[in-house]
Each structure stands twice: as structure tokens, then as C-alpha cells.
Amino acid sequence: MLQRGVNATLPRIEQLADEAFELGRCLRKTGLAGQMRMAGVRTALQSLVLGGPSPSLIYRIHAANSPDRVAIRCGGRALSYETLNFRIDKLANGLVQSGFTPGDRAVVMLRNGAEFVEVQAALARAGGSAVNVSSRATVDELAYVWAHAGAKWIFFDSAFSEVVGETRARMANGGAPVGRGSAIVIGGENRDARSYDELFKSGNDGAINRRLELDAAVILYTSGTTGAPKGAVRKFPRGALKAALQFIAETPMHSDDVHLTVLPLYHSTAYAFLGFTHLLGGTVVIAPEFSPTSFLTLVDTHAVTTTAVVPTMLHRLVALDDTSARRFSTSSLRAIFSCGAPLSGPLAVNTMDRFGDILFNGYGATETGLVTLATPRDLRDAPGTIGRPVPGSSIRLLDNTGSEVLTGEVGELYAQNAMLVEGYHRDAEATQSSMRDGYFSVGDLARVDGGGRYFIEGRARDMVISGGVNVYPAEVERAYEEHPAVDEIAVVGVPDDEWGERVCAFVVLKREKTADAEALRAWGRTRLAIAKVPRDFLFVDELPRNPTGKVLKTALRRDLRRDS
Known about the structure:
CATH class of the domain at 81-221: Alpha Beta
Oligomer: single chain
Radius of gyration: 24 Å
Strand content: 15-25%
Largest sheet: 9 strands, mixed
Strand order of the largest sheet: 2-1-11-10-12-13-14-15-16
CATH architecture of the domain at 81-221: 3-Layer(aba) Sandwich
């Protein structure tokens, strides 16, 4: 009996030792080791033993370690780690005293602000699940996610009262629980909801029961660009902390960072990099929205060191005229992380020419977390690459039979790491179809070169088969991104009686540049096999995108069907 207990304990001890080693390496590399005090170390060890790496753990640690350090700056307001941790506990206590129970789910429909962070962490401490919803969600979209998640609570900004009110009326007719006590409004009054301040004041002071956090989760709904969104369920296993530290150690992120959040916080990229910064005890500046001028103003004003953006934002930044750009200093920037959508080679080079070789390109998904990272050197040597797997991540490129493809060949990308979601909420079929031997795929196609660098070639559903030839949209798009008149391009397949499908390109030209279809075909014939050269070129003012910058190819196909 004693030996069985020893055998069961040894793996646990080895796991803790492994985490301690990885933590030590990261603390040294990021400079946090020199800032850690005994109170912070003691809180970290106690929390890991009692509950594990809940997403709210970092606020306890830094509240004990560096209580006066600013955690969040937003709209002229500054919150220290001590104040933020106190507010999180008080909100969590208010939730529990209001009937919130472990496992409950809450829709969160908030604009960027400190409250978004407080709500996420408080839900975790109460053992609940946050269901983040786009601030642009329509009544139909909100109703679907709310009902599908089975949420009993909602936190919403007063600016969204009309959408939320219509949704609640619709759901009440279906018998859904939408009482006043479980609806919390922020930034204004609503007669059908409790105010955020009321919930905050109702909570007891002091730490909440840490055991509740064992039930914490986040349900992240995919963008739904090709159909109804799926709810990816993310728990927080012990390996998640190690995975985060391993990623951080591959970057210039540091304990003295001032990180600028300009992406919407409901997007997993924005919240991930906010979390990385807070894990290191840095300061996050939260912008309510993005514009090139406001971005540069905040970088200059707050001496921002890191930020995370999508390529659309980089387009707008490099398009800013030199006279306007030179009014601001960006010398403090150490890293710009591009995620969320494909980063073209020319855009990467233009960005580095403007800001210096500080651009990193990350690949990942809601379901997988960050999987690869391309360094500035990678982006110079192999423009368009998503880089190499970060430590702790493993990739397989598989063909239709499940066999691994050869170097240079295209296959479906499957990833495995500690950040994989548990699966899709209430969708066992979708979960099973996305998994192969513990690896997860979101349907992206990729290839790897001889140097171990990966390149995205599009999505499996977007591949065009023309005359029996597989055409990968990303390959065609890359060829045209080099054209001096092409600003942006998106390639889709169009039904064709003779060829099955033909390649169609939607093109946005650069200002004051011209090119016609024949000139673009001639360009393509010198760079692509004839079957891959678009037959049709449609010139548009802009490409349709979702709020995080992904091109909506379903909308492009829909427009083609409407016009045909």
C-alpha cells in the first residue's frame, strides 16, 4: 500500500519539478526573477498546490509581490495589481452571494476596458465559464451563442442594451432564464439589469474560496465565417502555465513591458497577450478602438514596448504618410506580434522597414492557442512564413488518408500542445472530426520547407480543384502580392462547366495605381502554372472582413452567385 502511494506521488513531484525549472528559466530570461519577493513566491506556490493555474492566479501573485505596480491603464484610469486583485475577489464574492454556482456560464458582451479583465477573472474565481461575444453581435448571433452555451448570466455594456433587450425578449419566450438579477450592465443604467457597481458592492471583502477555481473555463466561439460558430471549451490544466512560459521565452517579452491592447478583448489573441504581459507583472494599456494615429499616440505617450495586431492594422499603419508618422516616437517598441489572419510577405517587409526588425508572426487558432512563431529574421529570409513550432507544440501535416506528407508538399495542419481545447461545446461530432491521435485541426492547409519553417496555403474548404489540379489560394495570392499595383487580393473557386472550378481573384489596387485583368493574367503566367492563373479578376474597393481581420470568402462567393 505504501509503495503504491509512493508510485502515485512520484509523477506529481516530477511534474512540479519540471514546472519549477521552466518557471525559473522564464523568470531569469524575462527579468522577473530579480523582482520576485518572498511574498510573491509564497503566494505562487500556495496557489499552485491548492488550485492550479487558474487565469486569475497571476493577479494574486502580483498583488502580493508588487502591489503598487500598475496592471491596467485605460481611459485615464490606472489600476494597481493590489487594487485589481481586490476588485476581482469582491466581484467573485458578489456573484457567489447572488446565486452563481460552479459550472455556471455567463455571456460577456463588453467593449475594451478594465471591466472586461475583472469579469473574466471573477468568473474564474467563482468557478464559472465566460462566454465571450463580439461587441458587434446581432440579435440572431447573440441569441444563438447564449442559447447554445446554456448561459444563465450576462454581462453587457450599456451601449448594447437594445441588442441585449431584444435577445432577452426572444429567449424569455423560449423559457430561458433571463431575470434581472443575472443580467449585469456596465457603464449606464438599465431597468431590466443590475448595475456593475451594485454587484461589486454586494460582495464581501477578502479572498474567495480558491477551490472554486477548479471548475473555471472559457467557452470561445469561433468566428463562424463558414457556418454556425462552434464553442471551443478551454480548461486550464497545469501544463497551460508551462506552455505560456515556453512561448514567452521565445520572444522579447520582459517583466518591465508596457503592452498596448488594440484588438477587441473578446478575441483570443488580444486576451492571450494581455495575459502574457500580466503573467510577467507588466502593465497593459487598453485602447477602446484602433486607428493609426491613436495607436501611435499611445505608443509614444506610454513608451509601449509590445503590442499584438492583425495584418489589417499593419496595412493602415504603413499606409500612413511619413509626415504624420514622424510626429510620434516608436523607439520604445521591442515587439509587434501579428496574429489572427495571414501576414503577406510584402506587408511584413514594409512593416519592418517602417518600425525596424521587431515584427513577429504567430499562427494559432481559438482551438489550439499559439502553435508557431516566425521571428523577424524568418520574415526577412522567408517572407510569408508562420515560422517554426514553439516549444511544447507539435505539428503533423496529413493527407486525406491520414499519412504525413513530404517536405514541400501540402497537407492539413494538425497541432498538439497543452493549450488545446477540451472540444466543442455540445458538438461531439465536430470534436471527433477535428481530432487525430490527440492532434487538433481547424482545417488549415500548410507545407514545411527544408529549414523547418511552415507556410499556410489556405483552408481545406477553400482549395480550388480546376481541371484536376489542386490550386491553393494562398500560393496564388502570394504571387500577386508582389505586383506593384496590388494592395490586397483574395482568391476563391467558381463553379465551371468545363473545368469543374475556375480560379477567381478579387483585387484591391493601391491608390494611384492601375492594372487591368489582362496585365494581371500576364503577370501570373510568369509565376504560376497555367491552371493556377485566375480566369476572372474582379476589382473592388475593399475585401469583406470579420472584426479580427479575416477575409470573408463566403461573402465573396455569395456576391458572385448573386451577380451571376
